[in-house]
Amino acid sequence: MADNYLEKKMDDYRRGAVQSHRPRRSSPDKTAKSIYVINGCSPESEKEIVSLRKAGHRVAFSSIDLKAGRKLAQETGSQHHYIDARDSIKLQQSLDYVAEKWGKIDEIKDPSGYLHPNT
Q1: I need a labelling partner for 104 at 20 to 30 A (CA). Which of 12, 58, 78, 114 fits?
Q2: Which domains does the chain have, with CATH numbers?
């Protein structure tokens, strides 16, 4: 009995009658951008991150608030980098990491004016 079952399944497979159970990945949205937001846990930046994610963009952000950063990342599906963006070496390392993983960063945003508070 088992041999007949296996032979039937193999015949179905060869004919192409057996469907894969894996869901197919959708192709990435060509209009989606990869965006890095500085000081993502400020109120201005949080709003920016939420709106960018709703628009379908990939978002990574830096923040020195570990707990709030993790929470925001989980809620929005973004990527949190626990760094002080004023540390230029750590910021560059974070940007390089994101660019390597995503292939590029289309925009860097600082909605709260964290790096340039007078502008």
Answers
A1: 114
A2: 34-109 (3.40.50.720)
